[in-house]
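User: Predict structure, ligand zinc ion.
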Amino acid sequence: MPKRTCLGCRTKRPTGEMVRICLVEGGRLAASASSNGRGVWICRNKACFEAAMVRGKVERALKSKLLTDVQKQLSSISEVLGF
Ligand SMILES: [Zn+2]
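Assistant: Predicted complex:
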């Protein structure tokens, strides 16, 4: 299984233990393993999601200045995923 670096804790893990967050139309974030384009990987746990919510982190990783409500969007994604 390929490994990716978590945006939250910077640890390399197999992608099966992680969530891929990508930028979709309208400048929104979505959890998707298959979507094309830029994405970031985050471990499947709350601590890493919270670490990834640090201001500007996701925007820098995705090279997007269009993002709004990153914290809110990441917390609703983690809620949907159940952690
Ligand atoms: Zn992590």
